[in-house]
């Protein structure tokens, strides 16, 4: 409709301009007829109504509703971590070659190549002391927490019966850094003492002649025998049968 009005206005304006310009009547009539023809043609065209978009209605139902957020629960307090208790110390593995020496031990010592023998009585603490099951006429004690790993250089106390002093001093020339000690009475027998290094180990040795024959040598390596120690208690427990 607006387009028709615009065309009619243009035709009238053209007619007025022509009249003012002195155009002939025929020219004016021609222009008017042309304008009217355009108006008829445009009027014959169906009017196109502008389409108005209908706003979409909001969806109804649970889907259109905003999802409700789950109610927040208070955070649970962390539980205190359980403190692992230390595992109890396992008992040392048994070793048939080195059985426990706890309590009283009564081995019989023998002097090689002679008839000299000596019954030794020695008491060891209830734990941590082991003895050699194999004997060559001597008796060995080992203070250790693991009798399954006893080696030649480990701490020990060795009791040996010899036929004479010359046998005790047989390797004397191989001793290094020999120092004499104050004599010590063991089992009622006064014994001479000395320290030295031999085959890479430091030794404290007490030795003396036994009333029953032969000479006893007590060799200590790696064991504390200061007063009040376990080594000292073991030496003080010695008697002879």
TrEMBL record:
<feature type="compositionally biased region" description="Low complexity">
    <location>
        <begin position="83"/>
        <end position="102"/>
    </location>
</feature>
<protein>
    <recommendedName>
        <fullName>Lipoprotein</fullName>
    </recommendedName>
</protein>
<keyword id="KW-0732">Signal</keyword>
<feature type="compositionally biased region" description="Low complexity">
    <location>
        <begin position="62"/>
        <end position="75"/>
    </location>
</feature>
<feature type="region of interest" description="Disordered">
    <location>
        <begin position="28"/>
        <end position="104"/>
    </location>
</feature>
<feature type="signal peptide">
    <location>
        <begin position="1"/>
        <end position="21"/>
    </location>
</feature>
């Amino acid at each position: 409709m607006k387009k028709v009005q615009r065309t009619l206005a243009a035709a009238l304006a053209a007619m007025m301009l022509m009249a003012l310009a002195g155009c002939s009547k025929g020219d004016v009539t021609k222009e008017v007829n042309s304008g009217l023809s355009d108006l008829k043609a445009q009027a014959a065209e169906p009017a196109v109504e502008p389409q108005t978009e209908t706003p979409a209605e909001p969806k109804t139902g649970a889907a259109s509703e905003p999802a409700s957020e789950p109610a927040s629960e208070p955070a649970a307090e962390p539980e205190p971590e359980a403190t692992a208790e230390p595992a109890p110390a396992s008992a040392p593995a048994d070793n048939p070659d080195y059985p426990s020496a706890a309590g009283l031990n009564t081995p019989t010592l023998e002097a090689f190549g002679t008839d000299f023998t000596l019954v030794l009585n020695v008491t060891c603490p209830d734990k941590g002391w082991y003895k050699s099951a194999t004997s060559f006429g001597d008796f060995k004690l080992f203070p250790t927490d693991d009798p399954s790993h006893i080696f030649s250089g480990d701490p020990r106390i060795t009791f040996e019966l010899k036929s004479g002093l010359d046998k005790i001093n047989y390797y004397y020339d191989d001793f290094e850094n020999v120092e004499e000690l104050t004599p010590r009475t063991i089992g009622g027998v006064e014994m001479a003492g000395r320290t030295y290094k031999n085959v890479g180990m430091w030794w404290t040795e007490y030795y003396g002649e036994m009333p029953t024959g032969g000479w006893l040598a007590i060799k200590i390596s790696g064991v504390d025998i200061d007063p009040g120690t376990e080594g000292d208690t073991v030496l003080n427990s010695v008697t002879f049968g």
